[in-house]
């Protein structure tokens, strides 16, 4: 009786393997047929991105669908960008979709560019293409590509302060990126430092926050002037003095040139090196 059970179990096992093999053999084969064709944006596209317009649509990427033989299934598309001339050796994913048209906002495009190592505040040549994939194994197909021009904006640190004034490169302006970011020193929480060209004989002020509008984020509650620090007992560099301009701003008296401005809120010192 035991031998009969063993024979029966072995038979069932062979039958199961045979059925599975038949299922694999009869499974519909999906193969790549026609690659997607990128339509827009074309190589004449150029854009200067800005923080103020980050929610606007930068461009609409459109393409003709990819086709595959075999049983129809969902085709997944990836919009890829890369540094021009690199043959997409290190492609950057802009976004994924199952549609054949996708709006890309200024913020989305800027984020992909900055994270992809493109140069901020400079015109970059960017290759763009579409990758399609379907099935468990992916079966990728790639479209043609166009080379567009894009100028990404700087993405500031949330912890940064800001310098605005005639002594700074942007003057008394908040337009675009005119203001100077004044970031925390890496690993610190109370020490700010920045390298910038300071103009002799001109004033400036430190601002605590930036609303990223051309109108600026003025106001006494959002800024620290010379007397704020003097009254708090800070030791202030001899090349800085009270501008006595009504707002009691800092006045830089040293030579015009590249300097390192630092406010150390631990040691309570303000230096220009």
UniProtKB/TrEMBL annotation:
The keyword Signal applies. Pfam families: SusE. Residues 1-21 form the signal peptide. InterPro entries: SusE. PROSITE patterns: PROKAR_LIPOPROTEIN (PS51257). Keywords: Signal. Residues 25-131 form the SusE outer membrane protein domain. This is SusE outer membrane protein domain-containing protein. It comes from Flavobacterium araucananum.
